[in-house]
Amino acid sequence: MQTRSEITLADGVRLHVTVSGPADAPVTVVLLHGWCLDRRIWHDQVAALGGMGRKAPRVIAYDTRGHGRSGHTGLGGATLAQLGDDLAEVLRQFAPTGPVVLAGHSMGGMTIMEYAHRHPEEFTARVAGLLLVSTTAEGHTHTRYGLPARVAALLRAGETFGAGLLARSGAWSPHRMVLPALRPAVQWLLFGEDCADAALKVALGGIGRASLRSIGGFRASVGAQQRLDTLATIADVPATVLVGDRDRLTPTACAESIAQALPGARLEILEGAGHMLPLERPEQVSSALVTIVRRVARSAKRERRAVRETVTRCREAA
């Protein structure tokens, strides 16, 4: 059963949050979507986690500020730093205790890194597993849009200029009316060899819900973030890194550098897939997530058993 809730952050922005799974589950999974998308990209993964039966985790998914059903953000709040703080608040309110698995797609993965950077003690105490999907720790360092370097540089310059204009265009979504015309461009940019109509519809729906301020406002922060050093400080957290070999936004070099910073991470490159792995390759993403959850649950069970045995010995000694 899924319940919907809302929280209001310190700056007044309202976040739309959904929670499913048993309240007393030993593990909580938090799902973070990408830029100009919403929590619906995780539909298949939520279903897979719910299908774990008695071992199902508690699952939290929310729409990032300025996206989906969440409230609009001010321009000053359209930064990865703010998203890292937002994640910290979601955890405090919805998952204050117990081990947590964080799964982030694209900007969602960057949000996780920012949370680790800005709240290192909380991250160390709470996070027991990571799934990083189609994301980067190096801003736009490796982004070429699948084009020659010189053409990509020109495109990025135009994109950056346009993003600045959009960021100041306000919290409205006039582009929603021209989404059908954008369909071919979105499919080319976000998807690989195969693109189901339902998957493209979810992606277009997220873009249509995002405001012009959100589309343009986050661009500078996303392009500038550098968090490989942060990843090196959390290298002992079990992690899986997934990327498609046709990803035009966060190509394989992005995933490879993340995996190098997290030596214990499992890197998987999916042939023929683009940027939207939760929608393009739902079974493989779900399998990776379920595997992490099971690993964390086993570890948590061992820790609880060790605590009980220690308590028993102390009582017997007394």
Automatic annotation (TrEMBL):
<keyword id="KW-0378">Hydrolase</keyword>
<protein>
    <submittedName>
        <fullName>Pimeloyl-ACP methyl ester carboxylesterase</fullName>
    </submittedName>
</protein>
<dbReference type="Pfam" id="PF12697">
    <property type="entry name" value="Abhydrolase_6"/>
</dbReference>
<dbReference type="InterPro" id="IPR000639">
    <property type="entry name" value="Epox_hydrolase-like"/>
</dbReference>
<dbReference type="InterPro" id="IPR000073">
    <property type="entry name" value="AB_hydrolase_1"/>
</dbReference>
<dbReference type="GO" id="GO:0016787">
    <property type="term" value="F:hydrolase activity"/>
</dbReference>
<dbReference type="InterPro" id="IPR050266">
    <property type="entry name" value="AB_hydrolase_sf"/>
</dbReference>
<dbReference type="InterPro" id="IPR029058">
    <property type="entry name" value="AB_hydrolase_fold"/>
</dbReference>
<feature type="domain" description="AB hydrolase-1">
    <location>
        <begin position="29"/>
        <end position="286"/>
    </location>
</feature>
<dbReference type="GO" id="GO:0016020">
    <property type="term" value="C:membrane"/>
</dbReference>
